[in-house]
Amino acid sequence: MDKVLQHTETAKKHAKNIWTRIQPRKRIVLGGGILLVIIGYSIAKSSNSTPVVTPKIGTVISGDIINSIKVIWNTKITDQQTLTFGQEWTVQKVYVKEGQAVKKWDLLAVLDKKTLSINMSQQGLSIQNARINYQKLLTAISEWDIVGAKNNLDTTQRKLQIAKNELEDMMLSNGDTLQTKATNIQSVLISTKSSINELKRLLDEIDNMFSITSKTNTDEINRLLSAKMPSYKIMTESTYQAALNKFNILESTYNMIQSKTTTTVTEMEGLQDKNRDVLNALSICISNGKNALDNSIVSVDLTDSKLNTWKSTLNSANTSVTSRLSSLNSEGKSLRTTDNDIQNKKNEISNYESQVKMYQESYQDMLNWPSREDRQLQLNSIKQSQLSLAQLSQQGENYEIRAPFDGNVDVINIKLWDKITSDIINEKSITVSNPNIYEIDMLIDQVDIVKINKGQPVEIAFDSYPDYIITWAIGEIDPTPTTNAWVVSYTAKVVMTKGERKIYDSMTVTVTIITEKKSNTLIVPSTAIQVESGNRIVQIMQGTEIIEKKVVVGIKDAINTEILSGLTLGQKILIQRYISPNQKMATKTGKFEKPNVRWLGVWGGDPSANQGRGN
Questions:
Q1: Phi, psi of 42, rounded to the nearest 5 degrees
Q2: Which CATH number fits domain 50-78+434-615: 3.30.1370.110, 2.40.30.170, 3.90.550.10, 1.10.3720.10?
Q3: Are 615 and 62 within 8 A, CB to CB?
Q4: Cβ distance 574 to 566 under 8 Å?
Q5: pLDDT for residue 588 is more than 60
Q6: Pairing of strands 437-445, 76-77
Q7: Beta 487-497 vs 437-445: how paired, if at all?
Q8: pLDDT digits 0-9 by tens, 201-238
Q9: Terminal CA-to-CA distance of the chain, rounded, Å?
Q10: Is the pLDDT reported for residue 153 higher than 90?
């Protein structure tokens, strides 16, 4: 022990001697170093103690998730044309200035047209001379004479064909036996069928009016009809039955004749007689019906209006019957074709054939005077002169520069009296552009092009207007690849019309192509979602407890993820998965020591401060 004390004392003396030899400034530096060592030791020792628990708390909010592709590019004027003359000559006039607005087809500049006008006038005279020479050839016979001769020939040929058809029908109808397909027989059958349809309609109207078989009226109306003179109603019903019986016989006879290929004159005349019998019987029935209506009693059931309507119907029916009787009685043409009729028709045909031959010879003579070759040569001369004039007129367009569309004059490289020659014809020009249409042709990487479709919305921001954004759409996607330094890209085009601001060629724009967008949807930070056994888990706060909830997610962007189910708006969640260092908090349920929790909110702060925060 004494030796230890002795050594200690010796060490102290040596230390004191050393300290004494150290200069005062170095003593300060050395003391500071010793102090830093002590502080570092204290910190290191304290780091071994239990850390403060700081779970980051957030809130489920409603918001938007947007995924997009950003491209920086330049605008380009689509409708810009450099216009030149199509002819060598001298500039006579320039009508516009740079920056001037023009309309489509406005005249911008023109060459001297004096020589062109002289050539066109000379060609016009050539056309006149050729026409005069052609008229000389046609002095004896006019074009109208030729047209008239051709019309006479065509008309007579048609009459000849009609007469031949009529003769054929006559031959079929010669004698008592008639062919049902003959024209005169078909005419009678068609007329009879029309009469049958009309008679059926009139009989149905009378039947419904007086409730003879149809029973359409009430008993009260039947009692009031012809109540003042009941005999008229009885006569109406009896004459209706008589007309109906005759009608049935007419219809049966018509159907019998129509079904045969041949008939006789007697049958056809009998058909006309039966048609006439029905019309006469129906006329008597209509007369009785009118008397019955005139002797009816007006009441609530049988009003004046109804009676007047029925009377008008009977009057119309009587007019129709009278008209058909008149037509039938006036058909005096015999159904029988005689030998005399056939001979007369043959003579008519012979006359027509003679006329056709005469008109053909006359027409040919007119065509041969003058000769066809002479006329054609002179006509060719006229057409050739007309074509030359048309070519000169088209050349006149080469002497002019006109605006191809509505727009502005950008550059003028032409001045008055410039001599346009072949070596500078493309240099002397006027540039016109349409300021209302621009396009942006963007190169999109092959990874991103598959996310883009025609019509997809885009937002266009201009460097020149930081506060101005245009919403437009993808107009076209070119599937032709562009390869540069092993990078494959494709062109997507946006064509836009002029907006509210001035837009010029080659302006720098940032185009945001929106590939996915969900609005007003539940979102959480993507860091809050963990994957366990294929399930997506979010830790939520319930009081002082932490509970793990399974969730179904939708789309996500660089920060947030959409929640489709599993969470509700306003729920408190842990932004990052939390496990207590000392295992004081369980994996699924547990409690943490409140004094050690530092609240961060959404996305930081006291969770109570986030109450009511939304999108």
A1: -65, -40
A2: 2.40.30.170
A3: yes
A4: no
A5: no
A6: antiparallel
A7: antiparallel
A8: 999 999 999 999 888 888 889 899 988 999 999 999 99
A9: 79
A10: no
